[in-house]
Amino acid sequence: MWQSLGDDIRAIMARDPAAKSKLEVVLCYPSFHAVLIYRAAHWLWLRRMYVPGRWLSQIGRFLTGIEIHPGATIGTGFFVDHGMGVVIGETAEIGNNVTLYHDVTLGGVAPSVNSAAQVGQKRHPTLEDDVIVGSGAQILGPIIVRKGARVGANAVAVKEVPPGATVVGIPAEVVNKSRPRLVEDADQYVPTFAAYGLPVEGVDNPVAAKMATMLAEMEALRARVEELEARQLAEEKPHVRVVSSCDD
């Protein structure tokens, strides 16, 4: 456990430019406090001391605003930036070097009816190594976010995210199909960090793109309707015979 906490401290130092020293991380970072309490609560949970484990996790929630169920599985190098409002469910699994931002939910979507049948079932997401989840993102159900993937801020992911992909929107869709960089002549990942789950060059929101397409089609349809109305009006307009005074 102490080795894992050391990895968590080093992860915070590496990913947060505001961290000036390890002492500052230990004393001032709610992410470190939440993970410290989680690891103690998880130790109790694994030994079937469920009530003490839950009680300890509730203390961590009260002190940090980060709710981590003691039954969740979390690897090393875990960092919750800012942290307030994060919720991690009981059957969630998190790999190594994962970063979450505030207001992230790793939740379940199983119905509340017949809850007894859900005991011991996988209900929450799995995040593989080097995943980054932006603030406000919701990852729901027993889906897998593959290695090196990024979930953009405020996205709602309800299906598997491919390795190295970036997903944004509601529901979340892939906007960057490129895979993580590979070491030359070796099939292994070279993780690159992206704050809030978005690459530096930015991404196009698929929802906004679809809205722009719909608006363009609506404008084209409006112009066509106006053209047809003008043509119909011209056809229906009565022919007026001009009578001159010389006809009398």
Task: State mean pLDDT (0 to 100 scale).
Answer: 81
How many distinct beta strands? 15
Q: How far is the N terminus from the C terminus?
A: 114 Å
Specify the CATH homologous superfamily.
Answer: Hexapeptide repeat proteins
What gross morphology would you assign?
Answer: elongated
Give a structural overview:
This protein is an alpha/beta fold and 248 residues long. It has one domain: Hexapeptide repeat proteins (UDP N-Acetylglucosamine Acyltransferase, domain 1, 3 Solenoid), CATH 2.160.10.10. Helices cover 34% and strands 14% of the residues. It has helices spanning 2-15, 22-28, 30-46, 50-64, 206-236, and strands at residues 67-68, 73-74, 79-80, 87-88, 93-94, 99-100, 105-107, 126-127, 132-133, 138-140, 144-145, 150-151, 156-157, 166-168, 173-176. The strands form three sheets. A six-stranded mixed sheet has the order 3-6-9-12-14-15. The chain has a five-stranded parallel sheet with strand order 1-4-7-10-13. α3 (30-46) packs antiparallel against α4 (50-64). The longest helix has 31 residues, at 206-236. The chain is elongated, with a radius of gyration of 28 Å.
Summarize the structure.
By secondary structure, the chain is an alpha/beta fold. The protein has 5 helices and 15 strands.
